[in-house]
Design a protein that fits this description.
By secondary structure, this protein is mostly beta strands. It contains no helices and 13 strands. β8 and β9 form a beta hairpin.
Length: about 200
């Protein structure tokens, strides 16, 4: 095997450079670094992860409520809006999106046992596109806390498409439901990252 030592490769035409042919394997050896300064190699950006900054009451009537995700862990492209609680990436492609709501009962004639249905949902452009649900079929929960997560791969146009996290609590005995920020109880979080064009 011959070794070619150069500092830079440019295509003859000045428009495209091809390395290898169909069926070839291109190896980057251990200890080497591949630096992406353009748009041709995916680096899973943009990405963000954020959480609910304080407990939020969402009621108990089965109404979907947008979760006020307002505290960022990471936001690589400043694409997450902590005022409108939405992710609007400016890079088109497919994104892995995930979220979870930590639900808790707070009051009612059977406080601590009054939840019969809980849903965590991801909305795209104001519409529900995927959800995870626990439904007891009219029976009461035996505990006051439940954490429900959801995830999906979503295609985004890179200009106006946006994602939001929603939650829903339902009860047949009244009372109230909230989503909590407490990390010790699982916490309420939302995130996404680019995976492919």
């Amino acid at each position: 095997m011959a070794t070619l030592f150069v500092d830079k490769l440019d295509p003859q035409s000045g428009t495209a450079l091809e390395i290898g042919s169909s069926g070839d394997t291109i190896t980057i050896p251990s200890g080497a670094t591949l630096t992406n300064n353009g748009s041709g190699v995916s680096s899973n950006t943009p990405y963000f992860t954020a959480r609910l900054g304080s407990d939020q009451d969402i009621g108990y009537t089965g109404t979907y409520t947008k979760i006020n995700i307002n505290t960022e862990y990471f936001d690589s492209a400043s694409a997450f809006d902590t005022s409108n609680y939405r992710f609007t990436p400016q890079t088109a492609g497919k994104y892995f999106v995930f979220g979870q709501c930590a639900f808790e009962t707070t009051s009612g004639s059977n406080s601590g046992n009054n939840l019969v249905a809980l849903v965590t949902s991801i909305y795209k452009n104001g519409s529900n596109i995927v959800y995870q649900q626990i439904d007891r079929g009219g029976q009461l929960y035996s505990a006051s806390k439940r954490t429900i997560g959801v995830s999906m791969i979503v295609d985004m146009n890179g200009s106006s498409d946006y994602l939001e996290l929603y939650g829903m609590g339902n009860s047949n005995v009244g009372g109230s439901t909230r989503v909590t920020e407490a990390i010790g109880d699982g916490g309420t979080i939302f995130g996404a990252y680019f995976i492919a064009t």
